[in-house]
Amino acid sequence: MRNGLLGVLLVLGVGSNASAQVLDLETCLKMADTANLSIVNSRLDVTMNKSQISSYLTARYPKIVANADYRYNAIIQGQLLPGEIFGGAPGTYQAVKFGVPFVFSNSIQLQQILFNPQINYGISTLKIQQEVLEIQQKITERDSKTQVANTFFNLQAINKQIGFVDSNLVNIDRLIGNMEAMERQKLIVKTEVDKLRINRLNSVNGKQTLLANKDQLEMLLKILIGLPEDQKITLASDDLVEKSILVDGNTINYPEMELIGAQIRMNEEEKKGNNMAYLPSLSFVAGYNYTYNMKPEDKVRQGIPSAFLGIRLDWTLFDGLEKYYKQKVTKISHMKLENQEELLNQQLHMQTENAKRQIEIQVNSLGIAQEQLKLSQSVYKQTELQYNEGTVDSNDLVKASTDLQQSQTNLVVAYVQLRQAELEYLKNIGNIK
């Protein structure tokens, strides 16, 4: 009995509110869609990248920069000039100071990009990055919902197993009561009753283990669907684990293939960007400056305006072969991505076919487990009847009880393994809703 309960636990894996919230699988998946933090963060990544695209697009707009420079020249800057300018002898020099102590300068400049190939490349890259993030969001949603469904079915399986244990305890308590009466009448020895008491203690211990595992799974489910820790929950139907979830198993969508396809397009854009880096960038520039000069002791106050318009060309004529080697790296990366795409396609198809076969295997295992349970129930009832008639001893009764409990465990395991196989298949084809 104890080994059987531990076996189902290995397969299954892993409160102050007045009323418990009733949950079905559909409700759990909907709650996870809005409250699961992994899903929420994946959507925030998509939103953040959209803002980055908008920010990058501002490079197309004109840039206007204003500057103000208010300066006091404690020592006027000087410069040596040929002395002959001032009537001196050739070959001599004289220091001359330029400027005034107080200089107030204000300027405003405008720059408008007319042509910059790197901007167009950057925008294309960000748009593909947006696709990548959206695909990753779908993968995150799929994986999170798979975890929710798996946890939900494990909880249902534990509830079903606890129900079996409770039913067995009722039968054992009834038998112990009958045998204690027979013991008092000196019809059987105490050892016969103790064998059933040991069996009962094993069942009680197994139930406690199941309840502890149930608490862990409930806590995990609350985290996955965004419920508070103290919220009591109960599952809407304990027999849902017996119903197939293969509503639509024909629609195949491999988000991993979409992801690597987007990465290949990103690589192609990177190649274009490397080629565009050979081209120059062209900008329109304009500026206005007003400088006010003051020398109070000489009563000098003079403003000098200036302005300009122009075109600026920036062109890297030689970069030390940097772009050439970048192109080589990009080409090798492209070859690697194509190989990964082919390998991934083969792996996904293999996993899908394996998942299909696993479903067939688990369906057969479930049929065997159901038949075993029917036989075990029949054997137990017959053995109990024979024991009451005195034709078999307590060892046969305990063995029949243990076999029944093992069959019950096997049935729960078979249901869970079948649901897990279906989940794995739906996950592989990207069809968990």
From TrEMBL:
Signal peptide: 1-20
InterPro entries: TolC-like
Entry keywords, A to Z: Cell outer membrane, Membrane, Signal, Transmembrane, Transmembrane beta strand
Example of a GO MF term: efflux transmembrane transporter activity
Highest rank taxon of the organism: Bacteria
Main location: membrane
Gene3D superfamilies according to UniProt: Outer membrane efflux proteins (OEP)
UniProt key word Signal: yes
GO cellular component: cell outer membrane; efflux pump complex
Subcellular location: Cell outer membrane
Name recorded for this polypeptide: Outer membrane efflux protein
